[in-house]
Amino acid sequence: MKITMINNTKENQDNIALLKLIYPKITNIFKTILGEDLIIADENLNYYYVKLCLITEEVLKKNDFLELAKDAPELPESIIGDFKSLEAHLETYLRLLNEFYGKIEKEYILQNISNYQAPEEVEKLFSEMEVAIEKYIKNNKQQTKLLDDKNLAFAEKIKASFNNSSSSKKDKEYIFEWYQTNDKLAHLIIKGEIKLEFTGEKIISLLNFLHKRRGSDWIDYNEIKNNTAIDNTEFIRHTVDDINKRVSSATKNEIKELIMSKPINKSPKSPKLYRWI
Fold first, then answer.
1. CA 155, CA 152: separation in Å to the nearest integer?
2. Closest to 101 in 3D by CA, of 29, 17, 170, 30
């Protein structure tokens, strides 16, 4: 019975040992991202992530490694860009990396590899990557503090407005403010406290536009399309339905609609008009 899938040669053993060193480094990058409060774009850390992945790809495409490569996890090409997808799959990536590392470890043991010394340029890459991780953590904590301070200041401003308002009791009970952190993150603040979080560039673009036009005339699909580049009516309907459901739940059904809608005509498939209350 063949107990190892890789031919026992010095070159192959060196490559197995190299994979055994590299995959924990990639895993450490994902653990670092998962362990911080924010996911931020760090081109320096991304550089080392891509470099490590390229080395593994070079090894796994060798003929003797093709069988092992079938079990290699499919990782993102970059750790900057689609943060929502990255965040959603971080734990999956870590699980797959750990599983694949187990297969590498098995090959390492079966081939009785010892005394491997990584090339000097690889050792240098590892050292520089550790520095990049330290900088990422430091930068992340600084940005988190800035965001917390900004959110706190904004919340205090809304609370002051709430306390000083001379509106009726019902109006004072629910004060809504839209706070956009960046293109992909925003919060709906209710009664001076952040209650609902919204992510995704298209969703933020739509809600931000509706908020800017709050209290105005009804907004039609063409206005939304021209101001947000969103050309999907179903996406608009879904997003509006979602925010209304979340607001209704947060206010215990006191507020049924934050964004009102009505059909243009009586046709069942009629486009809708929208307005932020």
1. 5
2. 17
Determine which helix (DSSP H) or strand (DSSP E) holds 211, and give its type and residue range: helix 201-212
- CATH, residue 265: 1.10.10.10
Q: Are residues 44 and 119 in the same domain?
A: yes
Q: Quote the CA–CA distance of 144 and 150 in Å, as a whole number.
A: 10
pLDDT value of position 21: 96
φ/ψ of 82, rounded to 5, equals -85, 80
Q: Are 122 and 194 in the same domain?
A: no
In terms of domains, do 131 and 201 share one?
A: no
What's the rounded Cα separation, in Å, for the pair 248 and 258? 8
Encoding tokens for residue 230?
């969103």
Q: Are residues 129 and 24 in the same domain?
A: yes
Q: Is the pLDDT of residue 252 over 70?
A: yes
96 is a domain residue: yes
Domain assignment of residue 81, yes or no: yes
Domain-embedded: residue 95: yes
Q: What confidence tens digit (pLDDT) does each residue in 232-249 have?
A: 888 888 888 888 888 888
Domain with 255, as residue range(s), is 165-276
Query: Is the predicted pLDDT of residue 33 greater than 60, yes or no?
Result: yes
CA distance 46 to 138: 16
Burial class (CB in 10 A: 0-12, 13-18, 19+), 182: exposed
Mean of the per-residue pLDDT values for the chain?
81
Is residue 149 included in any domain, yes or no? no
Amino acid at 215: G
pLDDT of 144 strictly over 80: no
Cβ-in-10-Å burial (0-12, 13-18, 19+) of 1 comes to exposed
